[in-house]
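Appendix C: a fully annotated inverse folding record. The material below is reproduced so that readers can follow the format used throughout the book. The structure is listed first as tokens, followed by the designed sequence.
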């Protein structure tokens, strides 16, 4: 189970330049192992719940909303144009390190990222390999073109949830004056509507896009979660806009970058938790990463495929796997620091 609800003891906004101020909060043990949680999406935002993946007696827990999302300023819902200024992976990587410096943290004992957060965790660790000791990655996404096309381009998810895929396509078809063209570039078609000058069009496109992803994220669809997102523009718009923005730009990563650079993080302790029934981020991505790390000489790779679990970090099996991973790494990190 998750650890008990945990209040934060510090919060604020950090000005990282380019017109962005990132909301962050700190909880847990002020003198504990520094840990940071990287949310998914991009644009998914944080909630107090994510603090509960960490033992509050052991970890100093840092969470934050990435550029354009959540309580960070500007939120894409309030100022779309400003939220997209310098919103890319290298900048988000720099933001994580700016937050580390702001909080006077020497290095991160643990970086936990799920889905897009796993992508960002890998990118950060590869850019700053001496400033990270361990990673917990849930629902690995490496931003390969096959992963993007499977999810948003060629109907790969149709095999698992045909209704969800057909609904995803139908919104574009029903609002298109050139379906023959737009059918070949669904992400581009969504982008055109998400950046429309018409607010109703933007919100309808966001609802269709996010509704599709949420409907394939869990083994048992939770209507309450979907309704919360669809009914909250400050959550809905960033989730859709940022995700499409990054998907159209290959995650602002060179093709194959994260696998090619695993040698830079072969000294880290890495735990991978992936739902075997994950229809958003395919299990093959986790397996590729696992194999690449082992071939690079990584001595601590713990890869668990969780039976009966989908993609969401609310899946009971994934919650259990993630907490076991953070608990085990807490033991390993304390043991390391005592020697």
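Designed amino acids, in order:
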């Amino acid at each position: 189970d998750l650890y008990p609800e945990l209040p934060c003891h510090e919060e604020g906004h950090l000005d990282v330049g380019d017109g962005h101020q990132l909301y962050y909060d700190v909880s847990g043990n002020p003198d504990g192992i520094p840990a940071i949680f990287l949310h998914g999406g991009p644009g998914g935002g944080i909630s107090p719940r994510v603090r509960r993946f960490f033992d509050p007696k052991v970890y100093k827990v840092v969470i934050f909303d990435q550029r354009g999302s959540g309580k960070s300023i500007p939120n894409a819902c309030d100022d779309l144009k400003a939220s997209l200024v310098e919103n890319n992976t290298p900048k988000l990587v720099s933001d994580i390190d700016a937050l580390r410096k702001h909080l006077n943290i020497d290095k991160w004992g643990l970086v936990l990222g799920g889905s897009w957060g796993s992508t960002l965790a890998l990118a950060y660790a590869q850019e700053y390999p001496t400033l990270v000791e361990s990673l917990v990655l849930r629902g690995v996404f490496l931003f390969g073109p096959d992963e993007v096309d499977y999810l948003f381009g060629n109907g790969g998810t149709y095999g698992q949830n045909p209704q969800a895929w057909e609904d995803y396509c139908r919104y574009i078809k029903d609002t298109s004056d050139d379906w023959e063209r737009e059918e070949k570039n669904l992400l581009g078609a969504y982008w055109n509507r998400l950046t429309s000058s018409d607010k109703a069009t933007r919100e309808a496109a966001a609802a269709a896009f996010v509704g599709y992803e949420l409907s394939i994220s869990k083994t048992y669809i939770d209507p309450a979660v979907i309704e919360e997102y669809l009914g909250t523009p400050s959550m809905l718009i960033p989730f859709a806009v940022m995700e499409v923005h990054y998907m159209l730009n290959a995650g602002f990563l060179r093709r194959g970058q994260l696998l090619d650079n695993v040698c830079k993080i072969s000294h880290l302790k890495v735990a991978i938790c992936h739902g075997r029934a994950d229809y958003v981020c395919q299990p093959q991505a986790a397996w590729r990463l696992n194999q690449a790390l082992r071939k690079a000489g990584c001595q601590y790779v713990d890869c668990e495929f969780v039976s009966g679990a989908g993609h969401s970090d609310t899946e009971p099996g994934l919650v259990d796997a993630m907490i076991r991973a953070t608990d085990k790494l807490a033991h390993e990190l304390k043991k390391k620091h005592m020697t």
